[in-house]
Every structure is written in C-alpha cells, then in structure tokens.
Amino acid sequence: MRYFIHLSYCGTKYHGWQRQLNGITVQEQLEHCISSMLRKEVEVLGCGRTDTGVHAKDYYAHMDVDDFPFTEEDFTHKLNRFLPPDISVFKVFKVADNLHARFDAQWREYEYCLLFKKDPFQIERAYQYMFPLNVEKMKEAAALLPTFKNFECFSKVNTDVAHFLCDVQLAVFEENEKGLIFRIRANRFLRNMVRAIVGTLIEVGKETVTIEEFKKIIESRDRGKAGISVPAHGLYLSKVEYNF
C-alpha cells in the first residue's frame, strides 16, 4: 500500500531534503521516525530536492507499507510527536499504488523572501537586502520569464538533467511592508534555478542589467552571464499540486 505524507519543514538545520553522508537531512529524520514506529526499515521518497537551508511550507513524500497498524489520523499524531519541532506532518493518507510523489506532481511553486530592513527575527528565514532597488524594473523583467522555455542560464552547471525546458506559468513580485516576495510557478525546476533568477533580477533592480540584457542572458543559455545565486535561507517551496 502506498501512503502520501503531507508535511512542512524549516530547513535551517538540515542539509536539504535528500539523504546524504555528510550531514543530517529531512528525509533521514522522517525515515528514522517512521521506521521506529513501524519497527522495520521504510524508505520515504520526496516530491523533489531542496538544498541546504531551503524551507518547505508544502511538501509531499510517499512510502510503501504492507502492514499499517494505525489509523491515518493516529499515525499522523504519533509521527509528529517523534519528529523534531522543525518538521511538521499535516496528514498521512492512502493513495493509488502507482502515484509517485515526485513524478506525478503537476506544478510546483516557490517563494523567495527579500527584506529591506534588518529584522533579527527573520535571520535564516529571509534575505535581508538593504540597498535601493528599482522594484518596477524587477517586476517588468520577472513578467518576461513565462515567455521563455529554456532556462539553462539559471541552472547549476554540470547537473545531470535530460533538458533545461520548464513551463513557467507565473513569475511575480509581491510587495509588502517588509520587502518583496518573488513567486514563481512551473511544472519543473532546475537545480539552483530560483535562486539564480532572483540574483539576476536583483541586478535588474540595481540597474546594472537592463530589461533587454535580461532577455539576452536567458537567450544565451550561459550560467556565467546570469547573476549570483542568492542565499538559500530566503527560499521556500510553497505549493505542490497533484491530480488526486
């Protein structure tokens, strides 16, 4: 039987989602707690990788269990008691045996948080950027992203992917009293893509890159022409959608 796990986590203390040899990860924590509860080794597969320090407001994983001696509600409650306080499970529920947390996700949405004023309560939760930016230019450049398909210029180099095509449906900046939230929605994301996009949009906001140059950067497919990757701690996986 296949079960989906709907959860969220603060990524500050973790070396990302995926299990690694050199640091503690969210996947490792989840598998350890579930395996202890079910008294057998259980592998948990996530809807995607998140890098060290990246957070997830909305995350899905799946596990295959033949013998499940709990109700879904009871298992969710007990699992939350086992897990550390920076990982929270909303729900555990049975799905079709062929539904895959990663490959059957229809859309993913990320948020990147920029603060314009120093806030000690947002350390490791947002990128505190306290220099002038032309926000209107940044909005104009962001609106161009859905008109492109190939995002190789924003991808981490030497990454093992079949192609660099992404169907971006939404790319907007939302202003609030503290700063900006960049929101982007696509069917898939390349490694480091969102952080590189935001870094390049900041260059547009600094007016060191024009709108026309921003277009040419994307068309170049050259990572060296795009901006730096902004810090991971401002990035949140905010929504994942399935056809349940």
Fold and architecture overview:
The chain has 244 residues and is an alpha+beta fold. It has two domains: 2-95, Pseudouridine synthase I, catalytic domain, N-terminal subdomain (Alpha-Beta Plaits); 110-241, 2-Layer Sandwich (Alpha-Beta Plaits). It has five helices and nine strands. The protein has helices spanning 26-38, 72-82, 135-142, 193-205, 211-220; strands at 2-9, 44-46, 55-64, 87-95, 107-115, 127-128, 168-175, 179-186, 235-241. Strands 1, 2, 3, 4, 5, 6, 7, 8 and 9 form a nine-stranded mixed β-sheet that branches. α3 (135-142) packs across α4 (193-205). The longest helix has 13 residues, at 26-38. It is globular, with a radius of gyration of 19 Å. The chain starts with a strand and ends with a strand. The mean pLDDT is 96.
Describe the structure concisely for a colleague.
The protein is α+β, with helices and mostly antiparallel strands and about 240 residues long. The chain has helices at about 25-40, 70-80, 135-140, 195-205, 210-220, and strands at about 1-10, 45, 55-65, 85-95, 105-115, 125-130, 170-175, 180-185, 235-240. Helices cover about 25% and strands about 25% of the residues.
Layout of secondary structure:
Elements: E1 2-9, H1 26-38, E2 44-46, E3 55-64, H2 72-82, E4 87-95, E5 107-115, E6 127-128, H3 135-142, E7 168-175, E8 179-186, H4 193-205, H5 211-220, E9 235-241
Parallel strand pairs: 3-9, 5-6
Antiparallel strand pairs: 1-3, 1-4, 2-3, 5-8, 5-9, 7-8
